[in-house]
Specification:
347 residues, alpha/beta, Rossmann fold, 2 domains, seven-stranded mixed β-sheet, six-stranded parallel β-sheet, 26% strand, globular, binds NADP nicotinamide-adenine-dinucleotide phosphate
C-alpha cells in the first residue's frame, strides 16, 4: 500500500466514525486499571445534549466503583467486570456541542454544568446527557473547573439536610466538614439558619471557619462528644463519627444523619441494624440511604452560588492523563473539597 492510498483509507475511516479520549476501566482494581483510550464519540439522542467536557471531578463514587468497594456495588455495574459504566466521572462542566432534535432548553455553545448520576461518563472529552436529567446553565460567577465541583457534594448535602428537617436556630454538627459533601453541608446548614459546628483536622480549621461555621472542633485534639454541646442534628459525611459518640451529643429525638460509610460489608450491615433499633427506641431518628436530586435542586444551588452564598473548594487539579494519580489522592480520604480533572486543554 503506498502512502497516498494509506492516507485515503485513514481519511475515509475517520469520516465514518469520530473518536474521543476517555479514561476507561475494564476490570475492578487499583487506580492503574484506568487507561486513556480512544473510544467512539457519543451522538446525542433526540432528548439529549452533547457536551464537550472542560472539567470533571474524581469523587468518592468514582473510586468506590473502580475498586468495587463495598462489594455490593458490583450489583450496579457488573459482578465480575465493570459492564454498565466503563468510563467513570459523575460531575462535569463544559460547552454544549450539539443537541438532539427534541431538545428545547439548551443550544449549541451554552456553558453548562451537571451530574450524570450513576450513568457516570464524565472522564471523557464528550458525553451525552438527557436535557431534563442533571444539567443546567453554568453559574455565571464560576469557572468550568469550579462548576464541575458542585453537584455531588451540593445535592447530597441538600438532600440529607432537608430529610433531617433542618430549621432556623437549630444546632447542627457536621462531621467530616472539609470533604466535598462537608463543605456544602456547612454552607447549606448556615443558609437554612442553623448554628453550625464543623469537625475537621487541624489543617482544615481555617477553611471550615471560612465557609461560615460558627464553631469548629479539631478531631485530632478534641472529642466532639465530650465538648458539652448538644445538637439537634449530627450530620456525619464520612461515616467515622461513631454511633455512641454521636448519640451522646444529640438531643433525644434529634436526627443522626449518616451520609458516608466506612468499613466493610459487615460494619455496614451492623450500622443498618443499629440504625433501625435506635429509630425504634425513639432515641434518635437515623437518616441514611442514597441521595437523590429533587426537581429544582440545580436551579436552587445555582441561585445560591450566583448570590454569593455558596462556593466550592478545589484542592488539586489533574489532567485526564493523570487520572490514576487523581484517584489515588481522592481515595486516600483527606482531600479538601474536590479533586478536579482538566479534560480540555483550553481552560
Ligand atoms: N449516601 C449518599 O448518597 C452519598 C452521597 C455522596 C457521598 N457519599 C459518601 O460520603 C462519604 C464522603 O464523601 P466526600 O465526597 O465528602 O468524601 P471526601 O471529600 O473524600 O472527604 C474527605 C474529608 O474527610 C475528612 N476526614 C477523613 N477522616 C476523617 C475523620 N476520621 N474524622 C473527620 N473527618 C475526616 C478529611 O478531612 P481531614 O483531612 O481533616 O481528615 C477530608 O477533608 C463517602 O464515603 C461517599 O461514598 C454518600
Amino acid at each position: 500500500m503506498n502512502g497516498t492510498f494509506q492516507g485515503l483509507v485513514l481519511v475515509s475511516i475517520c469520516g465514518l466514525a469520530s473518536f474521543m479520549k476517555a479514561a476507561v476501566y475494564t476490570r475492578y482494581g487499583p487506580p492503574e486499571v484506568l487507561e486513556i483510550k480512544d473510544v467512539a464519540k457519543p451522538a446525542p439522542r433526540d432528548n439529549e445534549v452533547l457536551v464537550r467536557v472542560h472539567a470533571a471531578t474524581v469523587c468518592a463514587a468514582d473510586w468506590r466503583l473502580r475498586k468495587a468497594e463495598p462489594f455490593f456495588i458490583r450489583f450496579l455495574n457488573g459482578l465480575w467486570v465493570p459492564k454498565k459504566a466503563r468510563i467513570l466521572g459523575m460531575e462535569f462542566a463544559g460547552t454544549v456541542e450539539a443537541v438532539g432534535k427534541a431538545v428545547t432548553r439548551f443550544g449549541e455553545g451554552d456553558p453548562v454544568f451537571g451530574s450524570t448520576g450513576f450513568r457516570f461518563g464524565a472522564h471523557a472529552e464528550y458525553l451525552c446527557v438527557p436535557e431534563d436529567a442533571g444539567i443546567a446553565i453554568k453559574p455565571v460567577n464560576m469557572t468550568f473547573e469550579e462548576a464541575a465541583a458542585v453537584l455531588f457534594g451540593g445535592v447530597t448535602a441538600l438532600h440529607f439536610l432537608r430529610k433531617a428537617g433542618v430549621q432556623t436556630g437549630q444546632r447542627v454538627l457536621v462531621y467530616g466538614a472539609s470533604g466535598s459533601v462537608g463543605i456544602f453541608a456547612i454552607q447549606l446548614a448556615k443558609h437554612f439558619g442553623a448554628h453550625v459546628t464543623g469537625v475537621c483536622s487541624t489543617a482544615n480549621l481555617d477553611l471550615v471557619k471560612s465557609l461560615g461555621a460558627d464553631e469548629v472542633v479539631d478531631y485530632t485534639r478534641e472529642d466532639f462528644a465530650r465538648a458539652g454541646r448538644v445538637y439537634d442534628i449530627v450530620c456525619d459525611t464520612v461515616g467515622k463519627s461513631g454511633f455512641a459518640r454521636s448519640l451522646k451529643c444529640l438531643k433525644r429525638g434529634g436526627s443522626y444523619v449518616r451520609i458516608g460509610g466506612s468499613g466493610g460489608m459487615l460494619s455496614i450491615l451492623a450500622g443498618m441494624l443499629r440504625s433501625q433499633w435506635i429509630s425504634v427506641t425513639g432515641a434518635a431518628k437515623v437518616i441514611s440511604g442514597m441521595a437523590k436530586a429533587a426537581e429544582g435542586d440545580l436551579a436552587f444551588l445555582k441561585g445560591l452560588i450566583e448570590a454569593g452564598t455558596l462556593r466550592t473548594v478545589i484542592d488539586r487539579r489533574y489532567s485526564l492523563e493523570e487520572i490514576a494519580q487523581a484517584h489515588r489522592y481522592a481515595e486516600a480520604g483527606h482531600k479538601k473539597g474536590h479533586v478536579v480533572i482538566r479534560v480540555a486543554a483550553t481552560i
